[in-house]
Design a protein that fits this description.
The chain is of the alpha+beta class and 797 residues long. It starts with a helix and ends with a helix.
Length: 797
């Protein structure tokens, strides 16, 4: 037996030696790798160091917030951009919300130095087990590095760079600073960046009012905001939420009772949508477009709060006046019939109170209709009264005698309420005729109101600023101004209203009659055409074109012929309002503007308009007093706000005010510069009084209904009544109204400027001037501002 075991021992010895040598070699290899790893890590860090960003600049990364548009009286009328990032400080973060993120993302955050081997191990396990409720391998610090400095591309180089930046961040920042940066920047779905934005978006709450369940829901979003979004995937969101709550219990962050209560809680979504105070879409879109043109697309996510010159009450009055005027025009020309024989009711847009409805029952003198809300209403014969007229193609026609002739079951019609209680209804049209209104402050060009069409949802084209049309007779005050400037005519000079021929052109008066000689002021009041042509010849064609250009019209759109006297030009309502401002402000060319100031997200003023003034001396003389008034008003508003902000238990108001305009300092103006003179004071004054006579004894006598002696105006109607205009002036406003079809065609018989456009101005101006004292100034008793203007003339001319 001994002889049998000796060979076995001899065979085992070499095997043992080989095994020992392999073990030593393996140990040596591991030792080399252990020693090489930090050396290679350090070497790679040295290699990448020049390309790594300076983490000290991390606070310079801008947090995205929507662009907001406000009226002068702080009404929110527009919001652009879907990125929300409400920055908060470390003190504002609830401890349980921190615990939820630690449990979900990085439980060893306060122990590791930026890179967690444990976390990387969990990531590997997640891949092997396909368990996507767990956290990934990135630490919170690594996510900060990626969110603030890197793209989301999945490459080895980017991941290595992320590791090295994480180490730099850990070396140069405290854990609290890193955590605060993380919760402010992390994307949490629904356009929300950061926890405060997410709390508002998902639960309509401020951070301090979140429950443990809601905190866990938010903490579950960073890993996959689309996958675990409770809006689009509530089941998976609930599963991840409860897993995080379990992790919070395991880590000792919450008690068993708190765990049980949180797990049993429903999702509890209460989505927040910013509510505009008023819809003023032409204004807000005009502002957005101007800002993008000036600052680029990034302005949409700038968080700026832009305050306009427009007061919401005046803007609403302007919108209502335009819509009422266009609807009245429509009513004068009869009902155009049903909107559709059949159709999908829910697909149609309402236009304010002009609602789509489906006819469900027809009686002899009434019909019943279903609204988009599902409610059923009755339109009685009295509500069909205006629509019973109909017109044939030649504008002749008759009237319907019963409701069956007008509508049938299944028809889609438009109706409007007759009273606020909506207990009575009438038939309606969506006007196809369009209109525009512009009102400027003639002293500095500040926009007071602007309407670009009947309804923005019907057409986004802004006719007030983009609609070039022939001005017709409202250009005549500019022509007369050019003539008065030459000194060859005065308002009381005689001009012939006889037939005239210039080459092959023979202009005619609108009534086809000629009345002989009359004064210049009378010729303007009656809007006679042949005198206007003679006045233009006196002024000189090229001289008149230059004057009109200085008043704000574009020279290339002014014809080089005497048809200019009758409005053969191409202008916008805004340009015309600019020109009339010079007539009422003493002869100075103002520049229209509508952005008064811009605030950043911290409610600090970063831009303040300081326009040229028609009377800079007047403005500057009152500057100190005006600025002090702004300071006093600011303090008063802050006091009122502080009193109203006493906690009344309502969270909705707190959320609504989280990102609203709340200035930190009062607005202050600098000394103004003088707006350039384009008309002499005497010409401006004469033209303003002549325009007053257009109302008292001329083509605009309907404006007498306003009951004011300090307004002037001018009607305008182009050939075939394709455009109807009215321009009204007052010492505080220059307002122009246009009515017409987008594709030029006749407005119809007797649809002059005094019929189609003047009533719109009348409705608006009645509200605009409510409470404003009479301000007309006669030459024998000039106001201080006019004396100041005369002093400016002596200095500059």
């Amino acid at each position: 037996m001994t002889t049998q075991t000796q060979p076995n021992k001899r065979l085992l010895a070499p095997i043992i030696i080989i095994m020992i040598r392999c073990a030593v070699a393996l140990f040596a290899l591991v030792l080399i790798l252990i020693l090489a790893l930090p050396i290679s890590f350090y070497g790679m860090a040295m290699y990448l160091e020049p390309t790594l960003p300076d983490v000290k600049s991390i606070d310079e990364n801008k947090l995205a917030m929507p662009l907001q548009i406000y009226t002068a009286d702080n009404k929110l009328i527009g919001q652009y951009g879907n990125r929300y990032a409400l920055p908060i400080t470390r003190k504002e973060i609830p401890e349980h919300l921190i615990h939820a993120f630690l449990a979900a993302e990085d439980s060893s955050f306060f122990e590791h130095s930026g890179i967690s081997v444990k976390g990387l191990g969990r990531a590997v396990t997640e891949v092997i087990t396909d368990d996507d409720t767990q956290t990934g391998g990135s630490t919170i610090t690594m996510q900060v590095a990626k969110n603030y400095f890197l793209s989301s591309e999945r490459t080895l180089n980017r991941k290595l760079t992320e590791l090295f930046i994480a180490r730099k961040i850990e070396n140069e920042m405290t854990k609290d600073q890193i955590l605060t940066l993380y919760v402010n920047k992390i994307y949490l779905g629904e356009g929300a960046y950061g926890i405060a934005a997410a709390a508002r978006r998902y639960f309509s709450k401020t951070l301090d009012r979140l429950t443990i369940a809601e905190m866990a829901m938010i903490a579950g979003l960073p890993k996959a905001p689309s996958t675990f979004n409770p809006v689009v995937n509530p089941e998976r969101a609930l599963e991840r939420r409860n897993w995080i709550i379990g992790r919070m219990l395991a880590e000792g962050f919450i008690t068993q009772a708190e765990h049980d209560e949180a797990v049993a809680a429903p999702i509890g979504l209460n989505l927040y949508r910013e509510q505009l105070d008023a819809n003023m879409l032409y204004l807000s879109e005009m502002t957005r477009s101007a800002l993008v043109e000036r600052y680029g697309e990034q302005v949409i996510d700038s968080g700026w709060r832009v305050q306009l010159t427009v007061d919401s009450k005046e803007q609403i009055a302007a919108k209502n006046a335009v819509q009422s005027g266009l609807r009245n025009y429509d009513a004068r020309h009869g009902w155009r019939g049903v909107e559709a024989e059949k159709g999908d009711l829910q697909s149609l847009k309402p236009f304010d109170d002009i609602l789509p409805a489906e006819v469900i029952k027809v009686n002899d003198h009434s019909f019943e209709a279903k609204l988009q809300s599902g409610d059923t209403v009755t339109i009685n014969w009295s509500g069909m009264n205006w629509a019973r007229r109909y017109y044939d193609a030649d504008r002749s026609g008759g009237s319907f005698s019963n409701a069956h002739q007008m509508v049938k079951v299944g028809n889609i019609v438009r109706i409007s309420p007759l009273n606020e209680d909506k207990t009575a209804w009438k038939m309606a049209n969506v006007p196809v005729v369009q209109g525009a209104l512009v009102s400027l402050n003639p002293e500095n060009g500040a926009l007071r109101a602007l309407v670009g069409g009947f309804h923005y949802n019907q057409s986004k084209f802004n006719r007030a600023t983009q609609g070039y049309r022939q001005p017709g007779s409202i250009i005549k005050p500019f022509i007369y101004s050019a003539a008065l400037e030459t000194g060859k005519l005065t308002p009381d000079s005689l001009v012939s209203d006889a037939a005239i021929r210039i080459g092959g052109w023979q202009p005619k008066n609108s009534d086809g009659r000629y009345t002989g000689d009359m004064t210049v002021r009378r010729a303007l009041a009656l809007s006679r055409n042949t005198p206007a042509v003679r006045v233009l010849r006196t002024a000189g064609l090229e001289n008149a074109r230059n004057t009109l250009t200085m008043l704000g019209l574009e020279k290339e759109n002014l014809p080089g012929s005497y048809a200019l006297a009758l409005g053969a030009a191409s202008v916008t309502p805004l340009q015309m309002a600019t020109g009339f401002s010079a007539i009422i402000n003493g002869g100075h060319r103002i520049q229209p503007y509508f952005i008064e100031r811009i605030y950043n997200f911290d409610n600090q003023i970063i831009f303040q308009a300081n326009p040229a003034q028609a009377c800079a001396i007047c403005f500057n003389q009152d500057l100190a007093q005006h600025n002090q008034m702004l300071v006093d008003n600011f303090k008063e508003q802050k006091t009122k706000k502080a009193e109203s902000d006493v906690n009344d238990g309502s969270n909705t108001d707190a959320v609504a005010q989280m990102d609203r305009l709340d200035p930190t300092t009062p607005a202050q103006y600098n000394a103004a510069v003088q707006a350039p003179r384009v008309l002499s004071p005497q010409t401006a004054y004469n033209m303003s009084t002549m325009m007053r006579e257009v109302i008292t004894s001329g083509t605009a006598r309907r404006a007498l209904a306003l009951g004011r002696s300090d307004v002037g105006g001018k009607t305008g109607t182009t050939n075939l009544a394709k455009d109807a205009w009215f321009a009204g002036i007052h010492p505080t406003s220059a307002t122009v109204v246009w009515v017409g079809f987008d594709t030029p065609s006749t407005l119809g018989a007797r649809e002059y400027g005094g019929v189609a456009a003047l009533p719109i101005w009348l409705d608006f101006t009645r509200q605009q001037l409510q409470g404003t004292p009479h301000q007309w100034v006669n030459p024998e008793n000039r106001s201080r501002s006019q004396i100041a203007k005369q002093e400016i003339v002596n200095i500059t001319d």
